[in-house]
Backbone:
């Protein structure tokens, strides 16, 4: 899909569809909408005066032009109340309009820059959000279908505002494309079936971003992982015939001597049966998505490279399967992590924290500014926050929490800070045979114990854990409106990309 700017008079643009956005309090007396309304003999004014379009967020109404202007149709899309307007309003309005345009068979679309004249947002942020909303909403995963259900929208043109420099708008479009393409990469990886997306396959895909002089990807195999004494990580994959991989992505490595890096760690269980603590059939049905954290980190590192983030960013992805066999870990096994701490495996389905433990220890060698891990870690996070509502944030540093919450607002990927109470750590240390246990097997201890376990492997640096289980893979109609179809969301890529942009600034 091509994106560009056009400076033609709006009523003379030769496209299939023109998209006009409107606040709930708007009328047609000013701006480009007024020009279109005049050309259509007051059709827009009449629709608004009758209350047929109220400007509610994502509300769409199409108007056929009957040859009065070159465009075949005009789509009105609501921005919601002006007082609530933000970047996410733009994403969702752009998404709703793009989806409707595709349903109507449009190939070439032109849009005004949503809300730029009535908000405190910069034109760069505004057009970036519109680009993200358009691309992400039109995503489909049809790789394994014999017939494609959807035709493609070929181009999106933003109508240039004479008061805004073109270079500024083009920069916003480019950022939006980079971030969205990185999200699409993460979505594709999660949507792949588990017989395809194995640890080796995930490593191969990560290698594809090693095409930049500033990015280096290394793949550690099982013997190399053993040499690092990553006993916790290796214990999870013992039951699988598919061997683990430890994926290390280093962007701007040459700056490590001068600048502390941002280190991103992603859980990548390419399929999770639960091991001997076997999941139910229904609980296992979406477990190909248990590598969504790793996919998000791969996408974020691609974005870092394309955005030319001016500091080092490191991605660490431990990738393995959690299967049942004669060699699989047993409940009550004791293993040693790479920092020497011993762990009693109470529950083999609490495996994500085991692979993350060794990856978090590995992160310390980079002398990181911050370490952020993303993981589909607990069903408790879904219960606590609700499917499709927000991811759970735990951190040992308030300033990092503030940065992440700011990026959450701008990216539209919601996170909610949760507590790390001392008793959570006490519960995880209550093993009779080891330094830690990987689970309490008690439902009343909640999601904080998983984060408390991880914290035991984060000595010496600022760290945040984001449990993306409520957000990574969504289905059904009962969840909050999302930018894209059911299935993989690519959650975390936008959050981390906006963090990297804002941190750079």
Residues:
């Amino acid at each position: 899909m091509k994106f560009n700017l056009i400076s033609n008079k709006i009523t003379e643009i030769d496209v299939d569809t023109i998209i006009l956005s409107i606040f709930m309090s708007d009328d047609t007396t000013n701006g480009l909408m007024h020009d279109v309304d005049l050309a259509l003999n007051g059709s827009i004014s009449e629709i608004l005066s009758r209350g047929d379009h109220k400007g509610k967020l994502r509300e769409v109404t199409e108007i056929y032009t009957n040859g009065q202007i070159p465009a075949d149709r005009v789509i009105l899309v609501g921005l919601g109340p002006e007082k609530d307007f933000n970047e996410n309003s733009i994403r969702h309005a752009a998404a709703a309009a793009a989806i409707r345009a595709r349903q109507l068979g449009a190939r070439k679309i032109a849009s005004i820059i949503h809300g730029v004249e009535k908000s405190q947002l910069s034109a760069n942020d505004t057009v970036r959000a519109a680009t993200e909303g358009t691309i992400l909403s039109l995503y489909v995963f049809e790789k394994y279908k014999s017939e494609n259900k959807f035709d493609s929208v070929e181009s999106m043109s933003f109508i240039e505002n004479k008061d805004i420099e073109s270079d500024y708008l083009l920069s916003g479009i480019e950022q939006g494309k980079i971030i969205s393409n990185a999200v699409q990469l993460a979505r594709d990886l999660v949507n792949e079936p588990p017989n395809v997306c194995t640890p080796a396959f995930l490593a191969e895909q990560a290698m594809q971003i090693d095409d930049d002089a500033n990015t280096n990807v290394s793949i550690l195999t099982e013997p190399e992982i053993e040499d690092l004494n990553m006993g916790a990580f290796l214990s999870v994959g013992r039951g699988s015939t598919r061997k683990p991989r430890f994926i290390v992505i280093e962007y701007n490595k040459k700056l490590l001597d001068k600048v502390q890096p941002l280190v991103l760690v992603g859980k990548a269980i390419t399929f999770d049966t639960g091991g001997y603590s076997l999941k139910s059939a229904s609980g296992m049905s979406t477990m190909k998505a248990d590598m969504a954290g790793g996919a998000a980190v791969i996408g974020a590192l691609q974005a870092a490279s394309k955005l030319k983030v001016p500091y080092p960013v490191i991605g660490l992805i431990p990738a393995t399967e959690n299967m049942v066999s004669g060699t699989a870990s047993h409940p009550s096994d004791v293993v040693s992590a790479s920092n020497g701490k011993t762990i009693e495996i109470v529950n083999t389905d609490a495996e994500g924290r085991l692979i993350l433990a060794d990856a978090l220890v590995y992160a310390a060698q980079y002398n990181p500014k911050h370490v952020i891990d993303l993981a589909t870690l607990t069903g408790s996070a879904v219960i606590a926050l609700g499917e499709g509502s927000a991811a759970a944030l735990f951190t040992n540093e308030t300033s990092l929490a503030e940065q992440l919450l700011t990026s959450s607002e701008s990216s539209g990927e919601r996170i909610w800070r949760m507590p790390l109470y001392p008793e959570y750590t006490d519960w995880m240390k209550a093993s009779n045979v080891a330094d830690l246990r990987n689970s309490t097997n008690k439902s009343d201890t909640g999601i904080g114990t998983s984060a408390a376990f991880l914290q035991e492997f984060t000595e010496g640096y600022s760290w945040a854990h984001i449990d993306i289980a409520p957000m990574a893979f969504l289905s059904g109609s009962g969840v909050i409106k999302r930018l894209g179809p059911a299935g993989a969301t690519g959650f975390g890529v936008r959050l981390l990309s906006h963090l990297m942009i804002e941190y750079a600034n």
